[in-house]
Amino acid sequence: MPVTSEELFLINVRTYQPPNISCPSHSIWHKVPVARRSAVFVLLFLGNMGELRVILTKRSSKLRSFPGHISLPGGKADSGLETEWQVARREMEEEIGLEANNEKLMKHYGFKIDHLNLLPCYLSRTFSAVKPCIGFMNLSSEHEQELFGNLKLNLNPDESSSIFSCPLKDFLYPSTKSPSRECIKRQFFKIEWGGIPWNLRSYTFAHENEHEIHWLREVSDTSMSSEEEPEDNPSMKEKAKSMPKRDLSTWGRLGTRRDSDTDQKINDVWGLTANILHDLAQIIYCQPTVYKNKTFGEEELINSVFTQGNLMQEKERSEEEVKLIHSKTINEEFGFNSILPKDEFLRLKEIYRH
């Protein structure tokens, strides 16, 4: 790899210790019901110029939750015996076909995926505790061609419709105003959810990327969903006309669409995925003094709503959770202040203000 390789920065995520202030010994992930436990795999690897890149997928429009969004490979736990790593690796294999067993990867392709660290839980819009598992795909130059020739990443059309990668450093904004490597538009807004400060980030990348690693270019893009219009294939256009249309707008902006200003086809990484990648970029590239007052994830919030608000206790969402899903500001009829003691609500507001 070039001397510009960012691999040395990985020591920062290896040594990162989540504070878990309210849960000093165990993450709240292990306390919520199995149906509320989710894990995503943040798979890092070195790009052509030695930059750290992250693998992302576009969720199938067939999925019930977050259809058409850009996401990290992952999903829900099958049983209470699965660890976060096991959930994330199993789901990644199901979605993109990357073997979950490191021994098999080493035997067949000469590399393994290093497990670097876990980040604190993030709270999804559907009230699941999402645990990011950070891994590194250690591809030395001598094995890269072997990987390209032998490893076949196969997208599960019921789960994912495309796969691509982005430079992790591009997700540092707004922590840094430095020019991005590949991101063409970066946005950040501080909003509120149920009275709690919330980060809304968006990073858009060109759908066609000349910097994409060659072994990802070989994976077929199966994006032929109700929100996309086929451009060049007449037979596919006819097929699209007969497809049932779904209104995916209720889940927010689509992951792949055309830019309203340039009409360029883009991938929009936003929401929970964008927040996870921004936080990870801070941990990897910034000194702890930069983020010393910031709480990564929503471990504190999940712990509070579970232990003091009696939410996330059952498999099915409660009436209070449904109300909170649609809540935005403290001025609304129902917010986190409606289910938490006042002093705890104010404590959480202060934590997430930074």
Automatic annotation (TrEMBL):
Basic and acidic residues biased stretches: 234-248
Domain of life: Eukaryota
GO biological process: coenzyme A catabolic process; DNA repair
Record region (Disordered): 219-256
Keywords carried by this UniProt record: Hydrolase, Magnesium, Manganese, Metal-binding
Domain Nudix hydrolase: 35-189
Cofactor(s) of this protein: Mn(2+); Mg(2+)
GO molecular function: 8-oxo-7,8-dihydroguanosine triphosphate pyrophosphatase activity; coenzyme A diphosphatase activity; metal ion binding
GO CC term, one of those recorded: peroxisome
PANTHER family the record matches: NUDIX HYDROLASE (PTHR12992), PEROXISOMAL COENZYME A DIPHOSPHATASE NUDT7 (PTHR12992:SF24)
Protein name: DEHA2E08118p
Protein source organism: Debaryomyces hansenii (strain ATCC 36239 / CBS 767 / BCRC 21394 / JCM 1990 / NBRC 0083 / IGC 2968) (Yeast)
